[in-house]
Amino acid sequence: MLRLSILVLSLSSLIWGKPLASTMKVLGRREALPAGFTLTEPASPDTILKLRIALAQSNPAGLEDALYDVSTPSSPNYGQFLTKEEAASFVVPSPETQATVNAWLAQHDIDATPLTPSGDWLSFQVPVSKANEIFEAEFNVYTHGDTGRQTIRTMSYSIPQELQGHLTVVYPTTTRALQSDNSAVASSCANEITPSCLQSLYGIPTTPATQSSNKIGVAGFDEQYADDQDLKTFLKTYRPDTSDTTTFTVQTLDGGSNSQQPSDAGTEASLDIQYTVGVATNVSTIFISAGEQNHDGDLEGFLDMANFLLNEDSLPQVFTTSYGPNENDIPLDLSINVCNAYAQLGARGVSVLFASGDGGVSGTQYDSSCSGEFIVPFPCGCPYHTSVGSTNGISPETAADFSSGGFSNYFARPSYQDTAVSAYLDFLGDKYKGLYNASGRGFPDISTQGVNFDVVIDTEVQQVSGTSASSPTFASVIALINDELIAAGKSPLGFLNPWLYSTASDALNDITEGDNPGCGTDGFSATTGWDPVTGWGTPNYAKLRAAAGL
Questions:
Q1: Is 272 a catalytic residue?
Q2: Is 109 known to be catalytic?
Q3: Does residue 379 have a cis bond before it (omega within 30 degrees)?
Q4: Least CB-packed of 260, 345, 348, 492 within 10 Å?
Q5: According to the annotation, is 510 in a ligand binding site?
Q6: 394 labelled binding-site residue
Q7: What exactly does this protein do (predicted)?
Q8: For residue range 118-173, what is the model confidence (pLDDT) as tens digits?
Q9: Is residue 180 in a domain?
């Protein structure tokens, strides 16, 4: 999993601070600078900031109900997905909220642009001097010691009291800029994984898909590019049965691109594209590349990607992402807004998948020294997507020790998980009491192989490992089942979890060995049934197909 390392900047009232006006209320504040950052100087008053604000959504509970209504196999509305307008209607800000926020914007002569169909996110540009004034903030320049990268952020910001309950997030403000850490680690079907290994292990068919409307979307960030010639070499080597013209299409946002210079080929992008195109035979694959001209600041396209999809009339039925920050690096209100975007996608029939992370119980990346509660990657805690962990070995297949898993500190356990998670907590007993949130959403939901994947990068075969490999693999399985469903005149699977935790729970290969160490512990253990290392286990295509009604 490639890390969006989104750490936070915090309040320091002793540095260039000023007292808050009596009518202002603090909306965002953090207490300590992240490791490696130093305060450099006040930001130039004339520097233009691209800010976005989140308005209170009118009916997020109704969105959740609608999502489960179309995603739960026992529901009479199962598979009757919402339109873009229907999904957006649940999060359209109330007339009062719109009027209040618009009056405030007009008062400050700010022209804002809606970013989503519902208008719950607005963007605008203002100079630092004006941002400091209207948000009682102090935007400063901060420098990362190792990279020298500078970013402009504030340590605290406030909004007028009359906006309380109407404006929930101002962003970017107290978070810092992305730094990526390529976790697809070079490593040396027992010693290497290829498409044929996955097909053999999981019974994945090689029969080409037939439905032109069936698509997989693959997220690309951090100037990671997928090289078409490398894909052709990969397919010629590992899938010689596919057409010589097999390729992928590209969509871009935020000034994104997909350089075809061989030396620009990215490990993450190459892995994701080669294993979606190479496993989901003949399913149309779209590489969605987010550039650096983003409007969501620190997330560098992460939130923009969700909003980009929400604005599309035609969506890929499966969307896979192998990047992510840690949950505690993102403000709660922002996390909720991003999670609700995935709920809208699910309600519209998209299976949203994310790699669970490569740090065991220490977050996106392994850390043996972390103390206190186990660290949760984001958006693993969001209940409206499917989190994918990793396994390795073939006889038996066991949990990969890097497979991130655990329980969210932000999001409560969803009802579809109650039975499965309660059973695991009974198995766990008092072990690690106080180190995790026993009432939080558990993850991952499922897993696939994630070690020693052969990938062609800049014309050379390399072996890479990580949950980055697992999410596109499971995405390919779901895309092939969707193809059969569409051909049979049925709806695609959409949001997977209610189905995975009920009808399909017996259609996965249970992984009962291995654990996911981190933070100076052995981490959680895999066991019979669901566990926070491998979820329900790995796919059995024939059983999943039957569970889907085929």
A1: yes
A2: no
A3: yes
A4: 260
A5: yes
A6: no
A7: Secreted tripeptidyl-peptidase which degrades proteins at acidic pHs and is involved in virulence.
A8: 999 898 989 989 988 998 888 888 887 766 667 788 888 888 999 999 998 887 77
A9: no
